[in-house]
Fold this sequence. Notes:
Blueprint: H1 23-29, E1 34-48, E2 57-70, E3 75-84, E4 88-99, E5 105-112, H2 135-138, E6 145-155, E7 160-167, E8 171-174, E9 177-178, E10 202-209, E11 215-225, E12 227-228, H3 239-246, E13 251-263, E14 266-278, H4 280-286, E15 299-309, E16 321-336, E17 348-361, E18 364-375, E19 382-392
Parallel strand pairs: 8-12
Antiparallel strand pairs: 1-2, 1-19, 2-3, 3-4, 4-5, 5-6, 6-7, 7-10, 8-9, 10-11, 11-13, 13-14, 14-15, 15-16, 16-17, 17-18, 18-19
Amino acid sequence: MFFYFENESYSQDNSSNNFQLNTTSKMLISDKKLNIGGYGQIDYNQPFGGGTLQNGKLDVHRLILFVGYRFTNKLSFVSEIEIEHASEIYIEQAFVNYAFNTYLNVRGGMLLIPVGVINLYHEPPTFNGVERPLIDKYIVPTTWRELGAGIAGSIPDASLKYQFYVVGGFKSYDNGTAGLTGETGLRKGRQKGIEAIITYPNFTARLDYYGILGLNLGLSAYFGKTQSTLFNGLDRNDPVAVQRADSSVVGISLAGFDLRYTRKGFHLRGQLYYSRIKNTEQYNYFTSEDNEPNDLGSSMYGYYIEVSYNVFYPFEKIKNKLVPFVRYSSYDTQATTAGDLPVNDAYQVNVITTGIGFWFIPQVAIKTDVQFLKNKIQSRYNYMFNAGIALMF
């Protein structure tokens, strides 16, 4: 298989001292006609604490097949087919790419939204910890993808890479059901390309800078309006119906910053996201049930900082990697609210994750960690023990 690396064709990943496998880039750069790869994640999760006994969970969390095909030197197809929890099948990527040159690629189909690190580099051996960080579940709902089209490329002389896409958006209302809430944030609004509806186009962009040895800096953004089934067949001249449909959508503006830094065996990773959501007062009132208003917040944020070290780095003859790490995270899916909706402090969560991973080779690892979780109204932490197998090929 062909490996593509973030800074240059031979540089290293800046998160865990593994060579970074980017599915899209690997397949697009390969000179083979047919490229096949994949990754898998098998987990054990055991919550404890709180004075109660709780069942653990054994799960084939993800099993993915990558298939790419090169029609010509410029025209390629990339796909990613995922099976989650041994039963749910999804398409995570499926797009056609035409490469005019290094500077400009035009692509269309099912695209990963280029916000944050994990959404683009989500293969389990490429990050520390068994599970993805929780802010990449609730604030940036990885794996986040939409149907759309746009451009991507790199500017080597400036050490820059860019992506810009026009895509479909989150579904906020579907035949009487609200897709967005304070508890789950934007996550349940993902359409995943499953007969996705669209009324308003959304826009997303990312810029990466890699001009300093060992350092990657990323800026990303997403903005637009959500989608609602109430616009289907809507009479434009009916102001009541138009106002009702407008109440079922919200506007989303999301910005993110991420960094990855590697210095010998030391690794630093951090991410920061902030999103502003408009029209939530009307949306919450419209999507209320049984006189209980919905509680979507008007802003959300999430951040983490992570430090790790490969203890085998000083020993050149040892090709394995042993990487202890610690990560501090904080996120809030209801940082502020509109109208008279009170802020729910239970949605503001702090997480400390610490653990260790052993890489047999860059593509295969076993990992274990403990998460300490506490929201703002709790006086003590809850705990989660995780262990898992991570692989890619």
